Predict the 3D structure of the following.
Amino acid sequence: MAAVHQSSSIPLAARDTDSVSRTLAPASDRSAPSPPRNWQTCPRSGHQVLGYPLTEAIARRACQKICPMPDNPSAAAVKGHFGAMTDGVPWLLSEKIPAVPDRSTVVVYKDSARMDLGEVIILADNRGVDNVTRQPPEPAVVEMIADELQLEGAEREPRWFKCVY
């Protein structure tokens, strides 16, 4: 009986030693995936889109590169130009970076109290037509988009917005 007990304990001891050595391995040896960012988790409730708010600053920076305004334009000209860039920026972005799924903006609630509306450049749509448009882009693609939009600091991180409709 002792021989059976001894022979059966050898594999267990070997397994125990192996698991201890894996547990004590340096962190650089273990390849744990980095935790997902907040924007990488797609919300399930309601119609929401992942994106960047289309601000006047983003439109102005795009205008400086593509179609600069004349010196001292009228307020009406600035408003009209901004309206055109609301459609133009997402289209130009999708032309330059094919991973941008939509060539338009959508009206969203900018705050959780649903008191302020705005337009968002769409990166993902949780009710998209197909799986590709539902999935958030890879972090490297998000970095390319943020670079193209010349975003800095916290505004480089896209976020989920609740759609108005």
Q: What stands out?
A: Residues 26 and 57 are 46 Å apart (CA to CA). The first strand starts at residue 48 and ends at 53. The mean pLDDT is 77.
